[in-house]
Amino acid sequence: xxxxxxxxxxxxxxxxxxxxxxAPQMFHLEQVADLAHKALLDAGxxxxxxxxxxxxxxxxxxxSVFVPAMAAEYxxxxxxxxxxxxxxxxxxxxxxxxxxxxxxxxLCQAVLCVIPARMAPLGPDEDPAWxxxxxxxxxxxxAYGAPEAEFDLPYGHMGQNxxxxxxxxxxxxxxxxxxxxxxxxxxxxxFNAQYHKDAIFRGKELTVEEVLASKLVADPLHVLEIVxxxxxxxxxxxxxKELAARAKKRPAFVTGFGExxxxxxxxxxxxxxxxxxxxxxxxxxxxxxxxxxxxHAAQIYDCYTITVLLSLEDAGFVPKGEGQRFIKEHNLxxxxxxxxxxxGGQLSFGQAAAAGGFSQVIEAFDQISNxxxxxxxxxxxxxxxxGTGGVMSEQGALILQGG
Length: 403
Ligand SMILES: CC(=O)CC(=O)SCCNC(=O)CCNC(=O)[C@H](O)C(C)(C)COP(=O)(O)OP(=O)(O)OC[C@H]1O[C@@H](n2cnc3c(N)ncnc32)[C@H](O)[C@@H]1OP(=O)(O)O
Prior knowledge:
Elements: E1 7-14, H1 28-43, E2 52-56, H2 67-75, E3 81-85, H3 91-104, E4 110-117, H4 130-137, H5 147-151, H6 159-175, H7 179-193, H8 208-213, E5 216-218, E6 221-222, E7 232-240, H9 241-244, E8 252-261, H10 277-288, E9 297-299, H11 305-314, H12 323-329, H13 345-349, H14 356-368, E10 382-389, E11 394-402
Parallel strand pairs: 2-3, 2-4, 9-10
Antiparallel strand pairs: 1-7, 1-8, 4-7, 5-6, 8-11, 10-11
Helix pairs in contact: 7-11, 7-12
Acetoacetyl-coenzyme A is lined by residues 88-89, 138-139, 159-161, 217, 223-224, 226-229, 303, 351, 388-390.
């Protein structure tokens, strides 16, 4: 059951992450068109090749419903497959496997997966404070009747920072917490960012001491172990094997995927230290017929350092409770023996809202297609990519393989 590996990523585009204050403002439809154009150019395909569309629904500026129809109309395409994905930071990974599955089912031949994440110009009735408000509560719903509005927010579980800190505290109680190992994740990724021309923290190298001396946001998480929100956006084209054969770059075939939603708030987790990627990765590896030992690079969703630690363990790269030792024993940079988040991760490349997860997908494609200028891994054929939504509540895994 699953994919046969007959669909591949053939082209991609993403905006350089920028601070919101200085980034250009564009309507989301404009961003979709611009990103699609750039991704098609990257692939060497034409707009008329597209017959599938997967897009984000939440936070789409110009519509809250009928988003795919509006976007397809704006692009001037007709599609046989249209989907909205609402999985927070897991959305990018989830878009890719849905596109691959639709292609393998014969519904379509080329799918545009896209998430615009630059601010749109605000209309006269729009409140410029909406984003600050949204950040304050993170993924929590404040709607009347929402469980988290009643049982999380009143107790100080605000936004994502506290939730991930709570998970880190639990991990510390069960397995111990080595602060310098955790900081090393951010440091090795920052090293990688020095080799990506678009990384927001390029030109700013980092040491373990600096991470540990930075502001404590939610104990034990320091500010330099937490992503910084930036403006951005990304698009990826997934195409059939036949179309992939005429693409400009070496395709990255989608040979395995898994997805798991375990809870909305970690307050309801059976065990906060066991994350949904465990099941998602198991399924993805089995589908691809590979094991973690076959992987040449891991692009792990990294909203926080604790996300990376738990994902490495639960995806099977290292046994439970031994992740911190593993991190200290291995060089996680693109020059090292365990290349991790070779673009810098979202911690150092920047997190463009739900499009942030695309940075991991696109880095995997860049590595497989030999386009990772300045940080290219040698013989990189098999890559593991993870996506994380909410507070470790929904996770996805992809196995991408060079054709
Ligand atoms: C989406 C999903 O489903 C899953 C997920 O990814 S969960 C994660 C979602 N993302 C978030 O929740 C955002 C997390 N980040 C934050 O809340 C904030 O960045 C923070 C609280 C950590 C820091 O905010 P702050 O203290 O108000 O910092 P702020 O006043 O904005 O900036 C001060 C300086 O620190 C820098 N900075 C801010 N956040 C930073 C960060 N995370 N890392 C490094 N530098 C940061 C700014 O660039 C700024 O520098 P300059 O003075 O040189 O311009």
